[in-house]
Amino acid sequence: MKILVVNNHGQYNHRIYRSLHYLKIPSQIIPNSTALEKIEEKDPAGIILGGGPSLDRSGNSAQYVTQLDYPILGICLGHQIMAKAYGAEVGAAGIESYAKIEIKILKENDIFKGLGPSMEVWASHKDEVRTLPEEFEVLATSAICDIEAMKHHARPLYGIQFHPEVYHTQKGPRLFENFYEVCKSFKRE
Hints:
- The protein is an alpha/beta fold.
- It has a single domain (3-185), classed as Rossmann fold, CATH 3.40.50.880.
- The protein is 25% helix and 33% strand.
- The chain has helices at 13-22, 36-42, 61-67, 77-85, 172-185, and strands at residues 3-7, 27-31, 46-49, 72-75, 90-105, 118-129, 136-142, 149-152, 157-160, 162-163.
- It is globular, with a radius of gyration of 15 Å.
- The chain starts with a strand and ends with a helix.
- The relative contact order is 0.19.
């Protein structure tokens, strides 16, 4: 029941791995150039798409989102990759920010179970999801970003703009535990 953490060349990918390790959630970091077949061979419980500097360096991450049948959590750039893979617009944030913000949780299902109605998070808003992909719904919003979190209507695909792996996101560990619960209960077709 291992989670694969996809390294999209971001500074926090190892912190995601360490956060999972502290929570006793089995995980492994893999490069974003890993072939789809290699991921299938590992048969992970789920996948976390880590952050990174730009969509140009996201490797095979968009293919993971559209072609693999596993629960996937996209964090920051991973969130943006997921949105773009499903036809949404991603662009420069209206307000660039790297700070603690408060998000409003609109739907406390799955990854936000027991975390609402609001939560202080550490966010990095240089780019953001500007339009919601057609098959998704908004789970959380903030004063500086309309789509802080989203979920696919039918598949276990989740995207979050903020960083649950950092100390300043106080309920971040619980979000990872909730995602792991989603992974453990997921049945592949």
